[in-house]
Write a structure and sequence with these properties.
This protein has about 400 residues and is an alpha+beta fold. It has two domains: about 120 residues, Phosphorylase Kinase, domain 1; about 250 residues, Orthogonal Bundle (Transferase(Phosphotransferase), domain 1). About 35% of the residues lie in helices and about 10% in strands. The protein has 14 helices and nine strands. Strands 1-2-3-5-4 form a five-stranded antiparallel beta sheet, sandwiched between helices. α7 packs antiparallel against α10 and α7 packs antiparallel against α13. The structure holds adenosine-5'-triphosphate. Adenosine-5'-triphosphate binds next to β1 and β3. It comes from Rubus argutus (Southern blackberry). Keywords: ATP-binding, Kinase, Nucleotide-binding, Transferase.
Amino acid sequence: MSKSKNFLNNLIKTLGFGSAKEGHNEEDLERIAQQEQKVFPFETLVAATKDFHPSNKLGQGGFGPVYKGKLVDGREIAVKKLSQSSNQGRKEFMNEAKLLARVQHRNVVNLLGYCAHGVEKLLVYEYVINESLDKLLFKSDRRQELDWKRRFDIICGVARGLLYLHEDSHNCIIHRDIKASNILLDDKWVPKIADFGMARLYPEDQTHVNTRVAGTNGYMAPEYVMHGHLSVKADVFSYGVLVLELISGQRNSSFNLDVDALSLLDWAYKLYKKGRSLEMMDPKLASSAVTDQVAMCIQIGLLCIQGDPQLRPTMHRVVVILSKKPSNLEEPSRPGIPGSRYRRSHRPVGLSSTAGTSGESNSHTTESSFTATGTSSASLVVRDRGKRPVES
Ligand SMILES: Nc1ncnc2c1ncn2[C@@H]1O[C@H](COP(=O)(O)OP(=O)(O)OP(=O)(O)O)[C@@H](O)[C@H]1O
């Protein structure tokens, strides 16, 4: 009998429910043990998604398709079928997924469990109902639903989720792919960070990145793209871009409001230096904005996107600033130019296997293959528990 079954048997006895043989059969115990370990039987996921029916497909991400499903207990789930190009073995996948399933925070999408079935590897997430932030902010006429209060709550929630990933989760996690499409909103508009942990699930694997959009996201910290320097400050940079996008309603990667500005970041910085930073505010916020808060958030955004990673605040500091009344903050220095502006054909230095190996180059050393690689690695977990991620 496995350890977990023994444990459950003992627990049942201790709680006075009689022996396992009396009250529970082996199958019950097997089921309880599986739930305990967050392992989903493949058949459960097949049933929940109606055999991965195309009508249940929520979308196709860089790591594979995502399906909506419903468990027999009524819970709605999102099942991510990892692309089979991951060459990670079954045991390793199970170990990594088990660790990631322990990551739990109100502002991080909950990984309910996982499943390995033959060559198939699947991740099971809580279903987050209200679409991803990019669809609301950039693509739809629903943008006005994002009034200032909601945007401010998103700014605060994402900051808390990132702080948790960086400092408080069992393993310190650098996300590496913070962007509007990776922020999901629940029915109460609570933001949830999606797609953490993917670098652990795709070690030494490059193939999947070819399916991802190359170099267009505009969120990547310059030192990471240029030199492969990875630290929590790369996430801080991406967070700063997200904050400025939320305030302006403009996507950094396709910014064209001002011919004299290189990017949304450059525009925001120039306006700030002229004392006119509120001019960058989305006109749709006119009636709901709390201008002191907006000005503070612009300054936080600008502090986060500074070219020098050492000058950027930690997420801890950002959360502290956001929880106080707007007050005097230091002056931001010039912004770094985000990753999508750069393309390289070589492996970034410093991306060792412990630092998330998906930055490795492969034989396709073309422009786009690097950029795809650079933008694809969704996240990194620094293994040592209790040790803070290295800050550059
Ligand atoms: N837990 C979830 N609840 C609801 N919808 C989800 C969930 N996870 C993913 N989705 C949806 O599934 C689609 C694919 O998501 P996925 O995160 O795989 O890719 P992406 O964010 O579109 O791209 P990328 O892989 O480049 O980040 C998206 O439309 C997303 O909104």
